[in-house]
Write a structure and sequence with these properties.
444 residues, mainly beta, Porin, 16-stranded antiparallel β-barrel, two-stranded antiparallel sheet, 4 helices, globular
């Protein structure tokens, strides 16, 4: 580890020297422009949301302080005079404990990502969140996460209610909490370091855009009870219609989310559960037997707790996912067992030392069925016959400005793709993939 830290200290110092002396100021990304409010109104440490941020999202991103063009004709218009755009530039560097064969250790990404956000109010009760993203490993632009909402509010059974429709392209994208999939910790990670080979549907398999798209409805009743049901269908990018791309989902992919929230004195608590079910044509890899599919069913439980400590804040998140896999297509092609299971546990805590610094610690664990046909040996990315991986993540965030975020993250693996030592049958151990990740995020 000392070798890794010595190699990275120059990069870390460069990040800090460029920014540590800057005065405090309001951030100017997309929603700050629209609302005229600082980023910390909606976020603790982005993208984690405050109570105000959760309410802003549930109400469709429509709160605005911008001058508007309005018309009250039979076809009404309520449009911000200035569109709400923002740009994010990310610079990154990654160091693994042991170099990947044939590669340089210390892989600078300049930039690692470039995001153009187009988001905000489209009308009095219609809003959206969307961005175009450049990713350095792929070296291309693509439309990434998108959430369009039509919202309303009123009374139901004598209690206040917020309700709406969502059109989005990733299950859990619509979620206002930070416990599952799209918005769960860690919010950033190295894109060039080895990572565990498998994840549950609610743990990331369908999190990326360009796989599915869906429409659903949600309601928050009495400020306590939340329900969301969204139906997705396959929507892979770069595929002709009708979709015949192997590995695409088949038919409807139903997703349901239920949660209860409450304030307990100065504290806040959320308890939730969710479920999703999907069929994949010829399996997720697309290499299974033709005419068959693989079926996945996830059930999860999650919790979020917030506790103020003076002017500072402690946030805790936990999620458990149980996935059942019926692998007819993969099994018929001798690529897997007929059925497998996967269990994922994640827990993290962040202490926000206002106004500049946050310290985070997370534990993650994945266990599952032994399946040597599915989890095969290969240098670096291979497995020892099982999906088991677990470890810890330590992270420090520094915010010299609300729209500049500097991150130092260290990931330590106890197990990786099945075991601790020689998991890939090529001599690589789990600890060889321990990763120091440095990231600077600039929002304009």
């Amino acid at each position: 580890m000392s070798r890794v830290l010595r190699a990275s200290v120059g990069t870390l110092l460069a990040f800090l020297v460029l920014n540590i002396g800057l005065p405090s100021a309001y951030a100017v990304p997309v929603f700050a422009r629209q609302t005229g409010l600082p980023c910390q109104s909606c976020h603790t440490v982005a993208p984690e949301l405050t109570p105000f941020g959760r309410d802003f999202k549930l109400r469709g991103f429509v709160l605005s302080a911008l001058p508007k063009i309005e018309s009250k004709t039979s076809t009404p218009l309520s449009l911000n005079r200035m569109p709400a755009f923002a740009l994010e530039v990310d610079l990154a560097d990654s160091f693994t404990q042991t170099s990947q064969p044939g590669t340089q250790n210390g892989n600078v990404q300049f930039p690692s990502k470039l995001k153009l956000f187009a988001a905000g109010a489209l009308g009095d009760n219609v809003g959206m969140f969307s961005y175009l993203e450049y990713t350095q490993p792929d070296d291309h632009f693509s439309i990434d996460l998108t959430d369009i909402r039509v919202v309303g509010s009123g009374e139901i059974a004598g209690k206040d209610a917020i309700y709406g429709l969502t059109i989005n392209n990733a299950p859990t994208l619509e979620d206002p909490w930070n416990t599952l999939n799209v918005w769960s910790f860690p919010h950033v990670h190295s894109e060039v370091a080895p990572t565990p080979a498998t994840a549950a549907l609610l743990g990331g398999t369908l999190a990326d855009s360009g796989l599915v798209a869906g429409v659903g409805g949600y309601i928050l009743w009495d400020n306590h009870w939340y329900a969301d049901v969204t139906l997705y269908r396959s929507a892979p990018t770069g595929a002709a219609q009708p979709i015949v791309k192997p590995g695409a989902t088949e038919g409807l992919v139903p997703y349901a989310r239920f949660a209860w929230q409450s304030t307990l004195g100065p504290d806040y608590l959320e308890l939730g559960a969710s479920a999703i079910q999907a069929k994949f044509i010829q399996g997720i890899s697309g290499a299974g037997a033709g005419g068959l599919d693989d079926r996945y069913r996830d059930i999860s439980a999650d919790a979020q707790f917030e506790h103020p400590v003076g002017d500072n804040l402690l946030t805790l998140h936990a999620a458990y996912i149980r996935e059942q896999q019926t692998l007819d297509s993969s099994s018929a092609a001798s690529l897997s067992n007929p059925a497998d299971s996967l269990n994922t546990l994640r827990a993290d805590g962040t202490f926000l030392l206002r106004p500049f610094t946050a310290f985070s610690l997370a534990y993650f664990s994945t266990t599952g069925s032994r399946d040597p046909q599915l989890y095969t040996a290969a240098p670096i990315t291979g497995s020892a016959g099982k999906p088991d991986s677990d470890g810890w993540i330590l992270q420090v965030d520094f915010l010299p400005l609300q729209n500049i975020q500097l991150i130092v993250q260290y990931t330590l693996y106890d197990k990786f793709n099945g075991t601790r030592n020689n998991y890939d049958s090529a001599g690589r151990s789990a600890a060889d993939n321990d990763t120091l990740f440095l990231l600077a995020m600039f929002d304009f």
